[in-house]
Amino acid sequence: MRNLLFTLPLLLVLAGCQSAYYSAMEKVGVHKRDILVDRVEEAQQSQQDAQQQFKSALEQFSSLIKFDGGDLQRMYEATDSEYQACSKAAEDVSARIDSIEAVADALFDEWQDELEQYSNAKLKQDSAKKLAETKRQYASLLKTMRRAEQTMQPVLSSLKDNALYLKHNLNAKAIGALKGEFNSVQKDINLLIAEMNKAIAQSEQFVATLKQ
User: Fold this and answer.
1) How far apart are CA 70 and CA 106, in angstroms?
2) Any idea which UniProt keywords this protein has (predicted)?
3) I want to staple 50 with a disulfide (CB 3.0 to 4.6 A). Which of 56, 89, 108, 206 is the partner?
4) What is the DSSP letter of 171?
5) What single string gives the DSSP state of each residue in 76-144?
6) Structure-model confidence comparison of residues 6 and 98, the more confident one
7) Which residues contact 209 (CB under 8 A, 6 or more apart)?
8) Which residues contact residue 110 at a Cβ distance below 8 angstroms, ignoring those fewer than 6 apart?
9) Overall average pLDDT of the 28-37 stretch
10) CA atoms of 187 and 78, how far apart (whole Å)
11) 106-110 — which CB contacts under 8 Å span 24+ positions?
């Protein structure tokens, strides 16, 4: 209960800030639908960037298990740097999806409320039908995005474990122990890329629908 009392005012403030932002944007001709399109496209870019970052981490891991003499400390630092970059990329993807949810909820609430303002029954029915279809497409997109988002977590866990293990075992034996992890990480990253490609493709279809 104490946590609820603390977080509820914060949520109300954030909701108020969002409402003020949407109102300000509408005054300059940018509506919630436009903002939703922008945020979906930003999420696409974020997912593409994340794909490249995870590919880079896999390349570093491949170099690590092929290590044959040299500065092992530097190799650890490069491995840890790739993990940190992947973690940041994953956080950005999650934040982008959260921002999509926020504006989509506001858009659909507004759309639903404005249905009651129609005096023409035919136009009202047509708008209600479009709302239902847009919500259906959005729900499917959000599900696909969240599924792609979840595929990042196993990879991040593995990359973190590898970096930590290497940090405390800077020797050739540690490299040998990590070789067995490569195929699993590669498989998880390939799955991540495939799921993100699905989300990106579905995003493009959704944006096209919104722009009609």
Assistant:
1) 56
2) Coiled coil, Signal
3) 89
4) S
5) HHHHHHHHHHHHHHHHHHHHHHHHHHHHHHHHHHHHHHHGGG-S-HHHHHHHHHHHHHHHHHHHHHHHH
6) 98
7) 134, 137
8) 32
9) 93
10) 21
11) 106/18, 106/19, 106/22, 106/32, 107/32, 107/33, 107/36, 108/134, 108/135, 108/138, 110/32
Look-up: residue for tokens 């630092």? 77
When pLDDT is averaged across residues 88-110 and rounded to a whole number, the result is 97
Q: Domain 31-211 - what CATH class?
A: mainly alpha
Q: What are the pLDDT digits (tens) for 61-70?
A: 999 999 887 8
pLDDT range class, residue 130, cuts 50, 70, 90: very high
Distance CA 166, CA 161 (A): 8
Q: Is the pLDDT of residue 8 over 80?
A: no
pLDDT in the model for residue 112: 97
Cα(65)–Cα(42) distance, rounded to whole angstroms?
A: 35
